[in-house]
Structure formats: structure tokens, C-alpha cells
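Cross-posting from the chemistry board since nobody answered there.

I work mostly on the small-molecule side, so proteins are not my area. We synthesized zinc ion and want a rough idea of how it might sit in this target. Sequence and SMILES are below. Is it possible to get a predicted 3D structure of the two together?
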Amino acid sequence: MNVGFPFCPACDAEIEIDDLDVDLGETIGCPECGCTLSVMKVGPIELDIAEEEVREWRDS
Ligand SMILES: [Zn+2]
């Protein structure tokens, strides 16, 4: 049973993922602020801001 979703460390948005969706060390994009987050821990998930990569998250 999940108590809640993890929060984005950059913008404090709740990110609706569970630990079945991600693996340790995986990176995801925050749907709110668009920054790259890496999964530091699972069960419960802990997110940290990933180092800036040369990757475009924005569409336009
Ligand atoms: Zn964010």
C-alpha cells in the first residue's frame, strides 16, 4: 500500500509513479518543471535532481 507519490525536489510537485514503473538509477522527467530526476532509491521512491544532460525535454 502506497502512502503517497514522491515529490519533485525541484518544484515540489507530486509525481505519480510507483516503484514498479521505475528502476534504481533510472532518470525521469518531471511533468511539472521538466527537469531531469534520477531515482536514488525505491520502496519508497526517492528522487534527486540529475546532473544536467544535453537532452531536450521541451517539444517546442
Ligand atoms: Zn519538478
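Reply from a structural biologist on the board:
Welcome over. Reading the output above for you: The chain has one domain: 1-53. Residues 1-53 form a domain with the Rubrerythrin, domain 2 fold (CATH 2.20.28.160). Happy to explain the C-alpha cell format if needed.
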